[in-house]
Design goal:
The protein contains eight helices and six strands. The chain is an alpha/beta fold. GO terms for molecular function: pyridoxal phosphate binding.
Length: 200
């Protein structure tokens, strides 16, 4: 059994995340500082590089983590410097990590209002960002670097969609969906956990 870490990745949590047995992927990477912490924390005897997905804030919500997406047609793909530099940093400076792809937690409203004929704008933005980043990585690092990122030869995977919208995400081309609530039920709030602990 392998594990995927989907909670917010922070540099100070690097060693505790790495301590998870059979950790396969961290899906929530959004800074060079956290990438460096994860890279440094990996044990020397680990048999394979740790897969990481960069979290993209496709909805632009302040409450969401992640770096800004890329937009086709923007001069120099404006506002994409942060994502490009983070991706390049992982590939070139973090030998224990493998940039596997991109992840987003889109706006709930878009998931609820998207219909069979109307596409989810967050999912489409992540796909466009993946395509632009892939093109940029090949231009910047060359074809020979393709073996150092993505699943297979430079194909960045997409993690988008949760229990409420996973079907739409799969139709949109998601490789990974996060359906913990659909399997395990709603997570207890901190207050519910405190009450439960106090009564036992």
């Amino acid at each position: 059994m392998i594990y995927e870490y989907t909670r917010s990745a922070k540099s100070q949590n690097g060693s505790s995340q790495i301590a998870i047995p059979n950790l396969h992927t961290v899906q929530t990477l959004s800074s060079e500082k956290t990438a460096n912490a994860l890279n440094k924390s990996l044990p020397e005897d680990r048999s394979a590089r740790l897969n990481v997905l960069i979290q993209i804030n496709t909805s632009g919500e302040d409450s969401k983590s992640g770096v800004p997406p890329l937009f086709r047609g923007s001069p120099g793909d404006a506002d994409g410097g942060e994502l490009k530099q983070l991706a390049k940093h992982i590939v070139l400076k973090c030998p224990n990590l493998r940039l596997q792809g991109l992840m987003t937690i889109g706006a709930l409203e878009l998931s609820l209002t998207a219909t069979e004929t109307e596409k989810n704008a967050d999912f489409e933005r992540l796909k466009e960002t993946r395509d632009l980043l892939s093109e940029w990585l090949v231009r910047e690092l060359g074809d020979e670097a393709k073996g150092r990122w993505g699943a297979g030869e430079g194909r960045l995977v997409l993690s988008m969609g949760m229990s409420s919208d996973f079907e739409a995400a799969l139709k949109a081309g998601s490789d990974i969906v996060r359906v913990g609530t659909g399997i395990f039920g709603q997570r207890k709030t901190k207050d519910e956990v405190k009450v439960s602990a106090a009564s036992s």
